[in-house]
């Protein structure tokens, strides 16, 4: 059971953190550089391939399995383990992951939905976006880019914490 829990945590965590890093560093900047032509790319990824759903599911599985592993390693959240260097490092990583999950759920997801709806409206019109629509799309993409960068940074720090925690006395 413990092996399955650990595999779940690692595999979903790798997907979540890796995809967040890729999205923040490459995908969103590329879509922004494409301007209006980037809209269909994001629509394909978000609506057809359901990337936001995969993000959500992987984040939930990662956080829940991480909490279960922490509970196991700490023998039920005992103070001795939690006060150790490794225990504190795991806790810091966990808090950063939870912060990234909350940022994704409550900030990035609503921004992505608004950008997707605006992109669909622009595409349905069959003509270039109005100056107002273009400005709003640029604003949403900028906010989404900053949010994605922050979440990816949190998950990078989380990954570092998880990688080194066992080696901190």
Task: Assign a percent range to the helix content.
Answer: over 70%
Helix/strand-derived category reads: mainly alpha
> What value does the average pLDDT take?
92
Strand runs, count:
0
Shape: elongated
Question: Roughly how many Å is the radius of gyration?
Answer: 19 Å
Through-space gap between termini: 26 Å
Query: Proportion of β residues?
Result: under 5%
In quaternary terms, these chains amount to single chain
Number of domains: 1
Order of helices and strands: HHHHHH
Low-confidence stretches: none
Provide a count of the helices.
Answer: 6
Largest beta-sheet details:
none
Please provide a written account of the structure.
With 169 residues, the protein is mostly helical. It has one domain (2-167). The protein contains six helices and no strands. The mean pLDDT is 92.
Q: What is the compact description of this entry?
A:
By secondary structure, the protein is an all-alpha fold.
Descriptive labels:
169 residues, 0% strand, 6 helices, mainly alpha, elongated
């Amino acid at each position: 059971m413990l092996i399955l829990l650990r595999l779940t945590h690692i595999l979903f965590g790798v997907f979540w953190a890796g995809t967040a890093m890729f999205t923040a560093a490459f995908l969103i900047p590329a879509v922004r550089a494409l301007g209006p032509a980037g809209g269909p790319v994001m629509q394909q990824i978000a609506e057809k391939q359901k990337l936001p759903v995969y993000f959500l599911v992987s984040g939930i599985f990662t956080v829940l399995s991480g909490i279960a592993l922490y509970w196991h390693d700490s023998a039920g959240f005992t103070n001795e383990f939690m006060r150790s260097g490794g225990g504190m490092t795991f806790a810091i990583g966990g808090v950063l992951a939870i912060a990234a999950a909350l940022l994704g759920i409550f900030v990035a997801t609503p921004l992505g939905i608004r950008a997707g709806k605006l992109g669909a409206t622009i595409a349905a019109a069959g003509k270039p976006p109005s100056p107002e629509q273009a400005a709003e799309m640029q604003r949403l993409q900028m906010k989404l880019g900053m949010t994605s960068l922050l979440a990816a940074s949190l998950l990078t720090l989380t990954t570092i914490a998880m990688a080194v925690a066992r080696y901190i006395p």
